[in-house]
Specification:
By secondary structure, this protein is an alpha/beta fold. The protein is built from 11 helices and 10 strands. The strands form 2 sheets. Strands 1-2-4-3-5-6-9-10 form an 8-stranded mixed β-sheet, with helices on both faces. The chain has a two-stranded antiparallel ribbon with strand order 7-8. β5, α3 and β6 form a beta-alpha-beta unit. α1 packs across α11. The N terminus is likely disordered.
């Protein structure tokens, strides 16, 4: 995998942006050409902004202003007791766009983040000029898990709080041996070390499951026919035939709806395409701007 040249990297400005009473999100902002299209990068469930670092650097090197965010309860953002649902995630993102005075940015969201940006674009097409869903946006869990109980049983995250950070790192490296050290470090940022040396997820399990329930209830297939925002789907073929077939059915539905939607497949590709192929993902995003797709 190609890493950006050192000259590409610009130290981002870390900020805390208030999006609701008593709730601030941690963001990392890279200023660019004030006349260039801004990007907002939105991570997935139980993830964090670090996974977007490579993409952010490449987009910034192309002149774009870039904002990467930690959603509520994730990374270094505030973790209030409530608000772990799709409606709140959309409201937080709209508030952040307004607070930063971003003029119709392109939103790129991965996994659950893809569903968040799709829902925002469907509700508020005036607020954005385009969206990119990175192996997300097409996630409709109810099609695979007709009951919430089945979804909960299959997708409840495993408990890792008996591990040390070193043990967790070893597990990650075994599961994605081709990922760079930088990518592994980004994954580790989803956790913190407790006083006894074991890890805990930054996103509490109860909040994780609340978001999962909201995602299970989301029906992106009902949005495509009336979506007014240009949309780019970046989809991963991991080699799992069943999962790929599900994505291809969702892709076909999106493409047939008549909205301005196009798709690009990464085959093979990991679910975290933005972490595995940051240069290619950034190139597809900035290229879509240059050719006028996001307009």
């Amino acid at each position: 995998m190609t890493e950006p040249a050192p000259s590409f990297a610009a130290t981002p400005v870390e900020r805390r942006i208030v999006v609701a009473p008593g709730v601030a999100l941690h963001v990392e902002q890279r200023s660019g050409d004030p006349d260039a299209v801004p990007f907002v990068l939105v991570h997935g469930l139980a993830s964090n902004a670090r996974l977007w670092d490579g993409v952010a650097e490449h987009l910034h090197a192309s002149g774009h202003p870039v904002v990467a965010i930690d959603q509520r309860g994730h990374g270094r953002s505030d973790a209030p007791e409530t608000g772990y649902d799709l409606d709140t995630a959309v409201a937080d993102l709209l508030a952040l766009i307004g607070a930063l005075e971003l003029q119709r940015p392109v939103l790129a969201g991965q996994s659950w983040g893809g569903n968040v940006v799709l829902e925002l674009a469907w509700r508020r097409p005036d607020a954005v000029r385009g969206i990119a869903c990175v192996d997300g946006g097409v996630i409709e869990l109810a099609q695979s898990y007709p009951s919430w109980e089945d979804c909960l049983a299959k997708l409840t995250p495993p408990s890792l709080d008996h591990l040390t950070m070193a043990e967790l790192e070893a597990r990650i490296r075994k599961s994605v041996p081709h990922f760079t050290d930088r990518a592994v470090t980004a994954y580790l940022h989803c956790f913190r070390t407790r006083p006894d040396g074991t890890v805990e997820a930054r996103l509490a399990r109860s909040r994780h499951l609340s978001i999962l329930r909201s995602l299970w209830e989301h029906r992106p297939s009902t949005r495509w026919a009336t979506l007014k925002t240009p949309t780019q789907l970046l989809l991963a073929d991991s080699g799992d035939e069943a999962r790929t077939a599900t994505k291809r059915r969702a892709e076909a539905s999106a493409l047939a709806a008549g909205s301005k939607v196009r798709s690009i497949w990464f085959s093979p590709g990991h679910h975290d395409l933005h972490l595995e192929f940051p240069e290619r993902v950034a190139g597809l995003l900035s290229g879509a701007v240059r050719e006028g797709f996001f307009a």
